[in-house]
Every structure is written in C-alpha cells, then in structure tokens.
Amino acid sequence: MWTFGITLMGYYLGRVIPDVDKYLLPIVLGIIVLSFVPSIIHIIQERRDSKKD
Fold first, then answer.
1. pTM for this structure?
2. Rounded to an integer, what distance in angstroms lies between the CA atom of residue 2 and that of residue 7?
3. 18 Rama class: left (phi>0) / alpha (psi -120 to 50) / beta
4. Number of helices and strands (H, E) in the chain?
5. Alpha carbon distance 53, 49 (integer Å)
6. pLDDT tens for each residue of the chain, 53 residues long
7. What is the C-alpha to C-alpha distance for residues 19 and 9, in angstroms, rounded to an integer?
C-alpha cells in the first residue's frame, strides 16, 4: 500500500509541476538542514551551561 501510494504521488507530482526535479533537491536539502538545527542548538546550550560551572 505504501509503495503504491508513494509511486502514485510521485507520478501526479511530476504531471502537476513541470521540472519538479529542479525544485526537489533544494527542498530536500532544506528539510535536512532544518532537522539538524534543534541538535545544534542543544549542543550549543550544553556547552554554554558547562562553561558556567
């Protein structure tokens, strides 16, 4: 079911948005960067707290 749904979504996305591959890479890279931001903030906060002690 999952494979069939993802395949159909990809097919329709390709038909609705021409040259979707041109936009897909920046979107994926943005999602990856945004997913690392909370971890980086946490690391920075931990280093600040350890320097205060």
1. 0.55
2. 9
3. beta
4. 2, 0
5. 7
6. 999 999 999 889 888 888 877 888 898 999 999 999 999 999 999 999 888 76
7. 15
